[in-house]
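task queued by scheduler; priority normal; single chain, no ligands, no partner chains; default sampling; output format set to structure tokens
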Amino acid sequence: MIQALPIIQEVLRNSSTSRYQLAGSVECPPNTPWIQSMLFPVEADCNEQTKLNPGNFKQAFFDRQLNWEQKKAIGSICSSDYGVLPFLVSGPPGTGKTKTLVEVALQLIKNSDGGCHVLFCAPSDQAADMIVQRISSCFKIGEVLRLNRSSRPFAEVKGEVLPYCWTCDNKFDLPDFRQLMACKLVITTCRDASLLLYSRVSNVDLIAAESGLRCGINPDAAPPALELHWTALIIDEAAQAMEPEALIPLCVVAPPVDSAKIKSVPLVIMAGDEHQLGPRTSLPSSPLKTSLFARLFARSVYADHVLSRGKAGERPPHVLNKSMLPIARPAFANLIRNYRSHPAILAVPSSLFYFDTLEPEAADTDCLASWSGWRGRKWPVLFHNNASDDSMDLKDGAWCNAGEVQIACKYAAELVNLAHVKEEDICIMSPFNAQVVRLRRTIREKNFWKIDIGPTEAFQGLERSVVILCTTRSQQRFVESDKKSNWGIIGMPNAMNVALTRAKFGLIVIGKRDVLHLDPKWRAFLEFCDRNGLVAGEDNRPVRGRANNESTTRLEKVLLAREEEPTESRVLKVVSQEDEMWTFGMQAALDAGSSDDYDESDHEEENDGYEYGDDDDENEEG
């Protein structure tokens, strides 16, 4: 991080006098350095859209299993017609963010004339290794480099990733200069990208070396337009990276701040979900808990755009029509199709965090419908009201709830013994470490060794067939101190969202109703359960007058309509797939194929939020 900060400071000090001159008389907004447009974009950094786009995708995709929203995002990025600012991909849980970015990298590299070099980063080693596993089969050895710090243990790296790493003297290292420059794709963590800065192979250093060599050989010649080595930066799971971490790879690809002519500026693409857990810091109140991705998405150029996912009280996305033109081209994409969860599991998170835009597309989500533990409408969601008190574990000095432990282990045992769910397909989570310890001890005593038990944050990015969530807290007077200490799950919406959206086929929440009800978002979940009879436990009757406080969610309406008249709807249509996260979605077939009927929204036509009929979309099977 130390290497990145002086570059940022120098750029911002010179922001009133510097600008980039691009070949072909294309300029950034006057007096705006490139890196300032990346960190503090405004509407002036966007290109203007004056007409509706064609209603078809002309480019060929390497992944034939992409859905319409993913293809639309990829097309926007590769055309780079949106302006000079970061392109943000908002990807809720299970919508295929990494799948989209992998296709972007392939498009940029494979469809170039050989001069494209992409830096692909992620906040963690595990995420970076996953990218290598997903994309390496499309390249030869030597074209892809998995860059690791020298202190990383070999045991952490999977066998299929090792061939793409460079080692020297039994430790990870950088290849020599010629081999590094030949790599078309370098994959690393945001922090380990500092190795490229240390090695002086950033765009600034490489342009300085090339310019100096040309000037030394022929000092009287006019300086030609130079090509940058790093042409694109892609950051996956960007919402989990601290802003200083994200600045490191940004400085690697940043062009020089002087007036040297360059043929093009690098693209910056980030994907993430600002509504899930953000960066982990030692201080709960640290400003570093807001990631660069989340800070950018809050800026008006994204948040106030007419095609944004929406603001409170609105029903986005809006539909673009000719009367709204001209507008700034959107430098963002909203993924909406979830390939993980049952619609009932998505109903509340979609309403609370994503403005009711999520579309369930997962297959076989009713596989646990026959389990006798479901209540009311028999949807695979259950709230169990637990009246037992939490207490301080004197040995560990942390909070636990003995009654909740017994309830959670009882449900897990029933799912294994009666519903025939595999132990490894069940997870039990709690936000309190002492409760996690008790849960593990109790479930092992019952000889269930493969059930996954851990703290809530450990499950971000993962999924399980059944999730049992223990909220643990039963004393309202400690909730505020929990929030200040970054504990618990009450009053912490991002942690709540992560916990609810890990489940594929079944979700069980155990908690004290009277405490959860004081949190507006948890109140919405309780009212959803109350309206549909998805409640169990002690005194499971809804509090008087509460059930009508919140409006019915969109997916809830669709589920109710399916029960009344079981016709296949677009929003609940399931698709055949082998891997819910990495197989195909729905391709929106725009039969008209003309530019007159196409819009820049995430839906092809204006509607009441959900559609019925069999001819709206066609599945494209890969």
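post-processing summary
- The chain has 19 helices and 25 strands.
- Residues 402-417 form the longest helix (16 residues).
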